[in-house]
Task: structure prediction
Amino acid sequence: MMKSSLNEILSFNESFVKFKQYEPYITSKFPDKKSVILTCMDTRLVELLPKAMNMRNGDVKVVKSAGAQVSHPFGAIMRSLLVAVYELKADEVYVIGHHDCGMSAIDPELMIHHMIERGVNEDIINTVKFSGIDLVEWLRGFGDVSTSVLKSVDLIRNHPLMPSGTPVHGLIMDPNTGKLDLLSDGNEYLTKNHPADTTKIEQ
Ligand SMILES: [Zn+2]
Result:
C-alpha cells in the first residue's frame, strides 16, 4: 500500500494551530491587491509564483487548474473567476502559464491506457465515450503554452458574463527563476478595443 501523508499532515497541523503559527497569515477574504490569478497546479509554482510577484497572504485570489487552462466557458474555473470579480472585489484577472508545463506533454490515449492499467474497466471507458463525452478531447493538453494562455485570456475577455472593462492579462512564468514574460496586457487591449469602458474605470 502507498504511504499516505495524511497522518503526518494532521499531526503537523495540530501543533501549527496549538502554537498559533497562523498568526502572521491572518487577513480577510477580500484581496488587498484586487486581483485574481489563474495559474497552473505545478509543484514548482506553489511558493515561487507568489514570491516572484510580491504577493502575500491576503493580496490575491488564486485559482489553479492543470495548465492554467479554462477548458469550459461554464465550468468551475470560469465560475471561480466570476465569483472573484463580482463577489470578492477582484478587478483584474491574470492568466499565468509556465514553461515546461506537464499539460503540454499529456497524451490522452496514453492516459486512458493508464486508467485501464490502474483498474478502470474498459467497459466504463466505452460507456463514457458512448454517452457523448469525447474523453480524448477532454484530456488533451496543449502544444504551446503561449497559444494556450492566449486562448484562455481570449475566452475570459469575451465571456458574456465578465463585466466589460475588466483587464485580463496573459503571462508566462519560468518555473525555475520565476521570471515573468508578458504575452498580453489587458489594459492595452481594453484601450484599443473598448475605449469607452476604459474611460469608465478611470473616472
Ligand atoms: Zn503546468
